[in-house]
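Hi, here's the filled form for the chain we discussed.

Project: internal
Contact: R.S.
Residues: 551
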Amino acid sequence: MTERSARLAGKLGDTGRMLTRRTAAGPGAAVVLPPIHIRWAALLAVGAGVLGVLAFPRFGFWPLAFLSVGAFSLAVHGRRSRTGAWLGLLYGLAFFGPLLHWTGVYVGPVPWLLLALSQAAFLAGLGAALPLVQRLPAAPAWTASLWVLQEAVRDRLPFGGFPWGRLAFSQAQSPLRWFAALGGAPLVTFAVALAGAALFAAVPHAVAARWRPLAPATAVLIAVPVVGAVLAWPLAPAADRDATTSTVALIQGSVPELGLAFEERARQVLDNHIAQTAKLAAEIKAGTVERPSLVVWPEDASDVDPFQDAIAYRAIDAAVKAIDVPVLVGAILQGPGPHRRNAGILWSPTSGPGDTYVKRHPVPFGEYIPLRSLAEFVSSDAKLVSEDMVGGHGSGLVSGGPYPIGDVICFEIGYDGLVRSSVAAGARLVVVQTNNATFGHTAETYQQLAMSQLRAVENGRTVLQVATTGVSAVIGPDGGIRQRSAQLFSPAVIVARVPLRTATTPATRLGVLPEYLLAALALAALAYTIRPERRSARPAAAPDPEEVVRT
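And the returned structure, exactly as it came back:
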């Protein structure tokens, strides 16, 4: 070893001794990591949030989700709950701010920042709770369950919740995605958070060993997804004796212009989808393309209500008759009263419009305005939503076509129960009708595509994501993208042969039970830490790291 290397090793050793202490004398004593200085903790919380963003599309470096959880765990380690809360708020703002930037592309920064702040508040709660459970034995498991609890609450509150940014949705390309087939997205989140918390737990041992080697942390980082893949591989779509295949077609008609103003040219958007359908019909007639059993249009393909506009009705009916197969038409319907409905209509070439799915979870502040007077005071763009949408009911199963279809519209893909209900009711194929035109060339469409990939694995179904402007894609039951449109804001037609499955995954059969169980474990851990006898026996707060360094 050179003299320079020896000096460096000595410095690292000194740092390790200053940053760690043992709870008892002798070899094998537990290694305890004091809290880092609050300024470094704040920077670490912000950095952890940025790492979380990089784990999601369009970046998609999914292992960084582990590092994000681990770094945040280190930042709040040893803190009082109130300090952990504001560190969690910093983490949440650093994460949700960039992740949700697309929400303000055409409506300005105020709605975007308010949404990011509201979501960061949930992570402030997580930051307050983590220091409590980190003192318990098997702390990584309690930490992971707290992440599930936080997401469960955020998915439901307020106004029906907002599921964007769940740890599970960063893992569409990860081996951990197979856990979705066992326990849904909550179990994937648990696995990701468990890996991150285990990385944090390895830090004091690595420091005490003079960082020589960093094998514990590296081993965990590598082993968790590998072991997860091995354990969960049997959950991959197995042979289904009742499975068949069928050809489907996705129509991406595009819009006349970017931004919100395209809705003022609704008939041209409809004409674009009719034109692409007519093009496909001509290719089928010429024998260059196989006739599909089903054609799917995206959300808002017809912003003109065909039941109130005779011209739109005749145009859609003619397009369906020309291609001579059922078409799932995305349309905006007027009523009841002054309201609107966001619908998917299964249109038959022989009998016309049939079974209709109405979006069950309209987007607050996007499709309807709660607290309207306050919302319009905050942003005049709230006035653009002049007619509130009302939600539909049922399981999401669309019948009357060549096979049962499960339909969800746009952001509904983020909600576990809305996708699962149609598969449990017998859907052999899941369709995601969406309109991403209002988000421009941002990461939103790719983040949504990752959700669709995870849903395919979770429910063991082919998922068709068909978007007005892209990305439109055919996703196999294994979560892999089989075909996709090449460009955003360009017309595209995708024709693919896909499997139609009937077997259900454990996640579909278990429903919400895994999430409830994991959330209950988190609540039990919190209840244990705040018992009166635990509070009286709780050790004094750790000394300030600067004092540790001076001594």
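Let me know if anything looks off before we file it.
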